[in-house]
Design goal:
The chain is mostly helical. It contains eight helices and no strands. The longest helix is centred in the middle third of the chain and has 28 residues. The protein is flat and about 55 Å long. The chain starts with a helix and ends with a helix.
Length: 149
């Protein structure tokens, strides 16, 4: 069970996560995309690529803090339960790879928008539905939560 001192030590990590999530959401908003488009068409074409770059770079301080001050574990799996949870995490990684092929990775990352020099905030994005969408609304979030848990 975490102590008060453990929780206080995790305060900076909580602040970093909150900042990351707020920035991530703000940059994903349609209004921010429109603002970038007003700067010029090259900004609209590069928006998703830059967005993903900023998301990756701003995640680094969060991960560094997590590494620097890991804190106590909430629970630890042992024996057969550990094997099961690790197998589920591996299955989730495989799920990411399989569904990545069903999405347009170049479009998701922003390469296609940059290469085509798209001038619309949302480009030609097409909603792709994988077989897993029959069971879960967002397979990648689901896989991420399985790995996290």
């Amino acid at each position: 069970m975490p102590t008060v001192a453990d929780l206080i030590a995790q305060g900076p990590l909580a602040i970093l996560w909150l900042g990351y999530c707020l920035l991530h959401s703000a940059l994903a908003s349609p209004g921010m995309k429109r603002r970038a488009g007003r700067l010029g068409p090259q900004w609209t074409a590069a928006y998703r690529l830059l967005y993903n770059g900023v998301a990756a770079l701003t995640l680094l301080p969060v991960l560094w803090q997590l590494y620097r001050v890991p804190g106590p574990g909430l629970w630890h799996w042992h024996g057969p339960a550990a094997w099961l949870t690790n197998a589920l995490a591996l299955a989730a990684v495989v799920g990411f790879v399989v569904t990545w092929r069903q999405y347009d990775g170049d479009e998701f990352l922003g390469w296609r928008q940059w290469q085509k020099r798209m001038h619309e905030a949302d480009g030609d994005e097409v909603f792709h539905i994988s077989a897993l969408h029959r069971h879960v609304r967002h397979p990648w979030y689901c896989f991420g939560l399985v790995i996290l848990w």
